[in-house]
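hi support,

uploading two proteins for the ticket. first:
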Amino acid sequence: MAEYIYLSNKDTLIIKPSKKSPLLLRLIALLFAVVCGVFFCSIRLKQMSIGNRIRFQPFQVLGRSYSEYGIKQIEISGENDTKQLEVPPVYHLTQIEVPGDNDTEQFEFPPVHYPKPQTFNRTECAHNPVQYFAIISMQRSGSGWFETLLNSHMNVSSNGEIFSVMDRRQNVSSIIKTLDTVYNLDWFTSASKNECSAAVGFKWMLNQGLMQYHKEIVEYFNRRGVSVIFLFRRNLLRRLVSVLANSYDRYAKLLNGTHKSHVHSHQEAEALSRYKPAINSTLLIAELKEMELTAAKAFEYFNSTRHIVLYYEDLVKNRKKLKEVLEFLRLPQMKLKSRQVKIHRGTLSEHIQNWNDVKKTLNGTEYGSLLLADYRR
């Protein structure tokens, strides 16, 4: 520190220091710069570490034709090992696992569709994605009731059993043409939400060409990113009662000369439930096994698709299952409702004409539990 020494007129020695020390200021500035540098370097190193963990590892597509199997193999190379995953092509790549340093990271690739219909303009909704789905089921398994629940959502269009018409399922070409029309939003029914649909689909029964052309349909579903909702009944005996009663009403037309598969009043439900079908107890176990086998084949054929499995009884007992469905379709949560009224309420003994024969046939077998009341609605 520089000082100035001088003598006054009266020979007095005066020592006068400088006003401020520039060296002290420099030391403070240097210390601040060092602290900031260490802080920013630590942040950068942390970001680089995270980036290394979540980066996509190099992968190799192995030569396997998805036109035959509906899937491809992807080989994911990590630092220490190589992992092979089978994933369907294009849209169906929903989730892969990439090895990290200490754990496994999961990434989800949801199907994204922006259809451009030929029959109308989506206007302000043109940039809103649309999910494609198909409800795979069997007749009298609760699919009609379930579909009305879905259609009560303001953004869902489920168009019923479009393949109940034979011309639409004559061959693979007619099936593909129909599917393209539906998923392009050019299929119009009372359920159509048109330009602002966020999910579009339909019901497809197993006996409507689905099992016959399953290879081609699976390839189409995986290629177009169609999500599958399996819906079946656990109690196949109740399903059989409903099938027989509905078949009888097609000809009897119990409701003022009109056949109705579904009703919206308790009076109509009571009128239809008065008919009690007689079940062939000799063929009963064989028929139940055939139902099980058909459903098992459907699971096997469509297992490579993006899918969810539902049972009618579970939906009746736990409406929270509907929340899972909306999450599966990536839709906003809403309260879903239906005007349909169940026809065959109460215990099965009230609805089967030869109940004692049926009970005797199933007691002590693997199907004995079907005799019990399993839910209320």
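and the second one:
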Amino acid sequence: MTVDSNPPLLHHFEKLLRHPDEISTLKRHDCHQQSGIMMEECQLPLIDLIGLNSHDERERAASAEAMCRASSEWGFFQVVNHGISPELLKKMRKEQELLFKTPFERKATCGLLNNSYRWGTPTATCPKQFSWSEAFHIPLTKISDQSCYGEFTSLRLVMTEFAAAMSKLARLLARILAENLSQQGGMLDDICNESTCFLRLNRYPVCPISAEMFGLVPHTDSDFLTILYQDQVGGLQLMKDSKWVVVRPNPDALIVNIGDLFQAWSNDVYKSVEHKVMANGKMERYSVAYFLCPSYDSLIGSCTEPSTYRKFTFGEYRKQVQEDVKQTGHKVGLPRFLQVKNAQP
């Protein structure tokens, strides 16, 4: 008897269809083509972080300037020479694959990694709200907790090292972005702690139906910034100049994107850009994301005036996002926190 590690995504997706026979009409086609339109492929701005360690002040300034420009124009960039060794990244991927090969019933019921296993989209009320994926969403405070891992002892050692390296990198990037706005770089260090930062281990199983199926529905990130380590399968897309573009994987780079909190804090200088993952009909996809978040009671206000957004706490923001998803099926995000004269009802 073969034990299936995949969650019952198709079964739950079928329940969202208005007519049971709709599933037979969903035919896969090329993943770079949606609704008959060939998707444009893009190369994200590439930042070589080795320039930050240069003895030449002009090189350091040029690296920082390129990062800030990409954060403003794209909301996304990729970094090389980031200080996280290829060996550690390979070990992380190996352990991640072993974890997700665990039988589905065990992943769903045994409380692994702080009982953080999630799959599909429980709040979905229609097909376009459904994500064809599974994930573990782990707070940094639990990553070194031996009781969270069961028999996966080697995973704990690797994840502890990986999380520390990603945290160090995230804080470095956040300091540079803050200093570019003439703010103290250490300010974000003071409000971002392990209690609210987290890692998300993602797996996108092979999807036997339409290439228009989301691996992860369109969204922006509710944090300061996100660092993504992904494989070479592809599927990540972002909104650029009012259209979706395909992000070309780079085996040597990590991807960084600006979150909602940095957009609000920078008063729209940096952009939190909508992005999504498209499911793949031939290959499974893996990624790990690190989210830099403040404590829940941290007050988020713009660093310049007049401010586009009213002040809010991170806890208030998360609560509003969750309420919107529950009531409407999608995240509204920052438009909920515009100043009263511009606020979205």
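thanks. also noticed: The longest helix spans residues 153-180.
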